[in-house]
Design brief:
The protein is built from 13 helices and 14 strands. A nine-stranded mixed β-sheet has the order 6-5-1-9-10-11-12-13-14. Strands 3-8-7-2-4 form a five-stranded mixed β-sheet. It is of the alpha/beta class and 333 residues long.
Amino acid sequence: MTSPRFDVVAIGNAIVDVLTQASDQFLIEQGLKKGTMALLDQAEAEELYKAMGSGIESSGGSAANTIAAVAQLGGKAGFIGRVRNDQLGEIFAHDLRATGASFDTPAAEVGAATARCMILVTPDAQRTMGTFLGASIALDPNDLDLSMVRQTKVLYLEGYLWDAEAAKKAFLAASAEVKAHGGEVALSLSDPFCVDRHRTSFQELVEGHVDILFANEDEIKSLYLTDSFQQATDLVRGHCKLACLTRSAQGSLVLAGDATHVIPAYQLGDLLDTTGAGDCYAAGFLYGYSQGWDPNRCGHAGSICAAQIVTQMGPRSQVDLKDLIEHHLASLK
């Protein structure tokens, strides 16, 4: 592939985040399991929205957060996802484009409203999410800007979108297209419950289509139905070119062939909110990868970006990520 227009293009849920602080008791009252994402219908979403405290609204969604961070790092980034032509859809599009990322998927004129995710952050900085997927799951192969997919080094797929059958078809069509034009496919497993719902098809996706896999400890153990992280790492090794396995305060592992790169967790301030940590890790890694960095350096870039995002409320960095990683990677051999 010669002179690709994009470094990273992502396909994911186009969601507006509503972020607020909440108590553990509130989670219990709402029937939410701490640290996970629950899918809500429109009525449930409206009830949760009424019950929660005042929140901060901003463009979100896992893959969109990654793309925003890639753009902030200086990468050429694009996003494909479905919003409705409503107020939240306008918020999503404006916020994402303001980062410098390209977003050209036409807004739906009929059907469900733009997706929203209520993010409840408890005093221990854990985030628990209630998500109404709305218009985002209406994405289908007809929505794909294949010219964008053809012109990227890496296509990044969000596992959350695997819940919709039409979106699955869009994923597979885009994966085939990017591979046919010399690009690679990256996948985030997104959530252990998402993996539980689609374990077999995720395993097939990883083995048949994915070059770079992102998963946290719970997700990779769920993928291979094991309580042992070591066993999960042994099972995933060799099924894709690179596997990036994050472990919160224990850092991360980057598996590259027979090599294992142990990446430390950076400490850049007090832990405030873990929302977007995995998204920003993927952004740092994929930005470095698209620039030709080795896997170890990519892993450090991801860890630095994740370390910054957990020191603030919300998944979009309030500091210049490019300056941040340049500073911290300066001494890395």
